[in-house]
Amino acid sequence: MNVLICFLAFPAFGQEIESSHKDKTYKSIYLELLGASNMIGVSYDTRIKPGSVFGYRAGISYFYGTNYNSYEGHGFSVPLEFNCILGKRLSKFEAGTGINMGLYSIKETYWVNSEGNVSIIEPVTQIVESRNTFRYYVFFNIGYRYQRENGFMFRAGVSPSFNFRDKYGLHKTPLLYPYLSFGYTFK
To answer: Where is 184: in which H helix or E strand?
Structure first.
């Protein structure tokens, strides 16, 4: 229900919380493992204006992966997200949506037989192709956030992702990545 409330209220970006925290602007820097960062990343997160439940995050992340020694990829990407944080205490519910866009270097290895057909039974010649390419995916974050006014902050949750099945969409497996973040909150 809280997720629905966050996204239905998204057009009201400037809405303020009616509480004693309405003049405070939280800013955080954190290290994220998996989730929207894909593997590992660092992000900056802040509220749109003091006291708002709505905020955004921008970061930089790194990815490396292989697939049965025939595919290898690595690259840097930028996760961008709009989010909302609900809760008046240190423990909060967070929900967000965003996009991760990046540049990846991909190396594919395959073998061809004497007739030029791809073959793994009778490899004759090994072919290695390398290319740089742009990739993206859209993600959602749903999770828990422990956040003080100043000091240690912690995030944990799941980050479902998808793309529009075009040639630039990054195909992630599994589609439901967990995430874990540790960081620092300041004013």
So the answer is: strand 176-186
